[in-house]
Specification:
The chain is an alpha/beta fold and about 210 residues long. The protein has one domain. About 20% of the residues lie in helices and about 25% in strands. The protein contains four helices and twelve strands. The strands form three sheets. A seven-stranded mixed β-sheet has the order 4-2-5-9-8-1-12. A three-stranded parallel β-sheet has the order 3-10-11. The two termini are about 30 Å apart. The chain binds zinc ion. Zinc ion binds next to strand 1 and helix 3. The site of zinc ion has 6 residues, from strand 1 and helix 3.
């Protein structure tokens, strides 16, 4: 069966516009697991790999070593999920890549990148202002098994703020990149926002969702 038909895309945007808290706060709010065949990686896939494009951090993260800060922040975010006491999942940073778009869901490359567009169901979609990032998780909706994913951080989520919009310092008026990736990594392992959970659980005919 065609991959597009067999899988669904969990495409979740973290929207800055939803934040009432300061810009350095967590993005996107609380995450929940679906109760009915939730998307998930299985233990035979552990450690779950991800591939960074560190070069894209330049100009997007404030600091003297944006690529290095990006690597540290992403690694730390994934580590935080591993550190959850009840979590079995493990992650591994695989080879860095120069890819800007993750066009192939099942090639083993799970991209973490800054870009102004993200691939959703094979189509590059521009990320609008106010959106911090988007995470795609490709999974078989008959059993929830995830086959791949990608995290894209919007290069200009705050058009009224001079770039770079992100930092690792918690500086006032900047977006904390580790906090955002921490949230997106939750989507990467199959979690979603509660208000969409019921919809996902009952609507198996949908092939694509792009909630805020
Ligand atoms: Zn989210």
């Amino acid at each position: 069966m065609n991959q597009i038909l067999r899988t669904r895309v969990l495409a979740v945007l973290a929207a800055a516009g939803l934040l009432a808290a300061p810009m350095s706060a967590l993005a996107g709010g609380e995450l929940y697991l679906l109760s009915n065949s939730p998307p998930h990686w299985v233990t035979s896939q552990f450690p779950v790999g991800y591939n960074l494009n560190p070069g894209t951090a330049s100009g997007n993260i404030d600091g003297v070593d944006a690529p290095g800060q990006f690597i540290d922040a992403v690694t730390s975010a994934f580590q935080s999920w591993e550190n959850v006491g009840t979590a079995a999942i493990t992650f591994q940073r695989n080879a860095d890549t120069a890819l800007l778009l993750d066009q192939n869901a099942t090639d083993g490359v799970n991209l973490v990148v800054f870009n102004s567009v993200a691939v959703v169901q094979g189509i590059p979609i521009p990320l609008p202002a106010g959106v911090l990032g988007v995470t795609n998780s490709y999974f078989d909706f008959s059993n929830g098994l995830i086959s791949g994913g990608a995290i894209t951080l919007n290069t200009d989520p705050l058009p009224d703020h001079a770039n770079p919009d992100y930092s690792t310092s918690g500086a006032n008026g900047t977006l904390d990149i580790e906090a955002i990736v921490l949230h997106e990594a939750g989507h990467y392992i199959g979690m979603c926002h509660r208000r969409y959970a019921t919809t996902w659980a009952v609507n198996s005919s949908a092939s694509r969702r792009t909630p805020p």
